Queue: 3 jobs
Job 1
Amino acid sequence: MKVRLDENVSWRVARTLQAFLSDTSGLEISYVRDVHPPGTSDPTWITGFANAGGHAVVSGDANILQHWVDLVAYTESGLIAYFPSPAWSRMKAAGRAAFIMRWWPTLVEHMKMAERGTSWRMPMTWTPSITGLEQLRDPRIQTRAQQRARGIRPLATISQFRPESESE
C-alpha cells in the first residue's frame, strides 16, 4: 500500500515514518516534495500519485473544506485522504508531528478497510479511534451511481502487511 504525505505535513514526519516503518512489508511511505517540486498543484500530484498505484494521502490541510478544487481531486482520484481538524492550525511543529505519529497506527488500520475515494477528518484528540474519524463528503457525488459516472473507484482494497510465514 502506497501512502503519501503532502507538503502541509513536515518532511521530518515523513522521514521519521519511513525510518520507523522501514522493515514493514507492503507499506510504502513517500513525501510529495520528493517527487514533485514546490508549487505543484494538488490536483496534479494527486492524479499522478493515484495513477502510480497510490492508495492514501495524509494531509495537513486543516482547511480542506475551503479548498474544494483539492477535495474534488482527492475524491475523483480514488485515493483515501485524511485531514486534521481546524485546531491543527494552532499547533506548533512538534505538536503536529506528535499528532500524526500518535494517529498513524489507527490511520493505517482504517486505510485497509476504507472505500476508495473517501476523505476523513481526524479529530483533535490524543486517543485515536477508527470510529472517531469523520467522513468528509463532496455534495456533488452522494450516490455510488454518481461516483461511477465520474470514474471514482469506490471499492476498498485488501492490503496484507505481514510477510507470509515461512515453512518450518
Job 2
Amino acid sequence: MQNLQYEIVHIPAYRGIGLKWDGLYTDVSSLKELIHTMSDRVGELEHVVNPEVQLGLSYHLRPEGFVHYSVYEVRDEQQLPEGMVEINVPEMTYLKTHHNKGENIGETYFKIHQWVKENDYEPYKETGIDYYDDLPIKHERYPHDRDLKDPHFDILIPVVKKK
C-alpha cells in the first residue's frame, strides 16, 4: 500500500510541442501508441529543454474521454515540426506527488482526490469550460527510462486555494 508524499509547487508558464490525442477511455490503447511515437520523435525538437522528461497533459473536456497532449518542453525558438502541435501552459500552482512503479495508478489518483477534498485546495478549472472529471486537469512527467508497462512518474494537478 503506497503512502504518497504531497507538495504544493509553483511552475512558470512554458511551451510544449508534441502530439495531440482526443479520444474515449475505450480507445486509450491508441493513446499509448501516440505517447511511444512522441518519445521516438523527440530528436526532431532542436530546442527541447529536457529530452529526458516527456510530459503528458490531460484535459477532461468530454464525457467518456479526454484530450491528451504528449509533449516536451521547448524554448521559444523551436519551430513546429510537421504533424506536431503546440500547447502553451500558463503559470500555475500544482499539487505534486510521485506515482511509484508497482502501484495502482487508479489508486494513486483516488488518494490525490481524497487529499484535495481534505485540504485547503481545489482543482483549478478554467472559467466557462465544462469538465468531466473530479480532477479535470492532470499533468504527468515521465522519465525517459520508465517501464512502459509499469511506469513511475510525477503527477501535477493544477490547484487553487479554496474560497
Job 3
Amino acid sequence: MTTTFDQFSVAQEKTLAKLSELNSIGTSTGSKLVELNMRAMKENSSKAAETALTFTKLKDAKSIGDLQATLQPNVDMVTDYWKANMNIAREASAEFSKIFEDTLVEANSAITENLDTIEKTAYPGASTTASAIKTMMSFANQTFDNAAKTQRQAEEVINSTLASAHKTAPKSKKTS
C-alpha cells in the first residue's frame, strides 16, 4: 500500500512541476506578445500619420509615387510583425511540444513497465489484455508522431508563404 501511495505522490509532484513549466512558458509568451504589440503600436501610430498626410497631398502622378514610397515600409513592417508573431508562437509551441513529448515518453515507459509486470504475475489471459493495450499505445504513439510531422509541415508552409509574399511585394524607390 505504501508503494502505491509513494508512486502517486511522486506522480503528483511531477505533474505539478510540468504545470509550473507550462505556466512559465505561457507567461513568458504572453509577455513577449504584449511587448511586440506595444512596440508595433508605437511604430504604427507615427507611420499612419505620415501615410495619411501623404495621402491628403495627392495631386499628380509624382505624388502617387510618394504615396507608394510611404506604403512600402508599412508593408515591410506588417510582414516583420507577423514574422515576429510566428516566431514567438513557434518557440512556445516547441517548448510545449517538448514537455508534452517528454511526459508522453515517461507515461508510456511507466505503462509498459506495469504491463510487463502484469503479464508476468497476473491471472491467465492477462497477457492478451496487456498485449492489446501495448498495441493501442503503439498506435497512439504513431498518431502523435504523424500529428507532430503535420504541424511541422504546416509551419514550413506558413514560413515559405510569408517569405515568398515578402519577396514578391513590390519594392518602391525611395524619393529624395
